[in-house]
Model the fold of this input.
Amino acid sequence: REIHLQNIERLAVVGELAAGIAHEIRNPLTSIKGFTKIVKESVDSENLKSYLDITLREIDRINTIVSEFMFISKPQEFMNLQLTNLNRVLSNCIAFMEPQANLKSIRITSYFHSEIQTKCDENQLKQVLINILQNAIEATHDSDQDIEVILKETENNKVLIQISDSGVGITEERTKKLFQPFYSTKEKGTGLGLIICKRIIELHQGTIEIKSKSNEGTVVKILLPIDIPCQVDL
Ligand code: ADP
Ligand code: MG
Done:
């Protein structure tokens, strides 16, 4: 499971770079294609023409590969917004993380105040919730401490997802660094979890806020609009 999460995080960074490179490949490719066409029209040799046809086909092939690669490597740009039951998504994520919590005798208690549906990208939201739950579990050492998950509707059409732990907490000075890439206090941490969470929540036009006190615990508050306007541009 840990390996799986780290892969997601690593993929996101590689994806970011790869998407940038893919974009850079496309521009010169467009001019190569244009000039190849011009050359093809101005040569007489049928042999040469057929070679240039192959060149053009291969250019199209690169274009297709690059487009698909951009899609896979930068999934955040292609949100799959669906009306989703948040109670179900949260329950699934908690169930997914429970074995890891059980290993440390940590209980995850949930308080779902109502049944809430909202438009979101379920897989991306799961990625956020799992990372935050994982951070909470990793921060908790004393086995009789619970992790608390709250889901409720707030004023002005918002959904609050709140995940609290009574773990090691974060000093005020460090709180500022939480959303910086590669900031991690863990031996095997990537320091990319929270920045990815933030990006995903912002793509959903929501906010994420972390309040923490050293040795007391941490509260992560996610606010999402219930009616997310469709902002996907495919
Ligand atoms: P990683 O988990 O790979 O270290 P994250 O971006 O998820 O990266 O978290 C960055 C850092 O923020 C962590 O290394 C840890 O120091 C701190 N942190 C995050 N969540 C908590 C939490 N619930 N309690 C204490 N510290 C936390
Ligand atoms: Mg993490």
